[in-house]
Design brief:
Layout: H1 5-14, H2 27-30, E1 34-42, E2 56-62, E3 67-73, E4 75-78, E5 82-88, E6 91-96, E7 103-105, E8 114-117, E9 131-133
Parallel strand pairs: 4-8, 7-9
Antiparallel strand pairs: 1-2, 1-6, 1-7, 2-3, 5-6
């Protein structure tokens, strides 16, 4: 995943210098991992999704301390209580809010237009023990 110097610097200010973009795990590595939070980076209007919106680069911070590539998306849906903090220009952190269920990347996760965090309340296979990211 390509990140510019400003994005790396912004993330490192909150990660005590421990973020190294060269060590970001792949999407395949992210499957099944439990996440503390997701870093969202607006990619700007230079390259646009077919929908006409800029891409959002997403990086998951695992409970194992590693970072994982969650791909490029044009939007996300969050069906669970969450908190979004601005870390700097175009960089945000999305994390669970008032919820004990861990956020877990689905075993079949892949990068598509939509990333969905949790299932809608009407979903018949809704997990009671974890929040599934797909």
């Amino acid at each position: 995943m390509e990140l510019n110097k400003s994005e790396i610097k912004t993330i490192n200010e909150y990660e005590q210098g421990k973020f190294n973009p060269e060590e970001i795990g792949s999407i395949e590595d992210a499957r099944g991992k439990q996440l503390h939070y997701i870093i969202l980076i607006s990619h700007g209007r230079r390259y646009m999704h077919d929908s006409g919106y800029p891409f959002i680069k997403m990086i998951g911070k695992g409970t194992d301390g590693k970072f994982y590539n969650l791909g490029w998306h044009d939007h996300y849906i969050c069906n669970e209580p969450s908190n979004t903090d601005s870390l700097g220009k175009n960089v945000f952190r999305l994390m669970p809010w008032c919820n004990d269920k861990p956020w877990v990347v689905s075993n079949g996760f892949w990068s598509s237009s939509t990333i969905e965090i949790g299932e809608p309340i009407y979903y018949s296979k809704r997990s009671e023990t974890e929040v599934i990211i797909r």
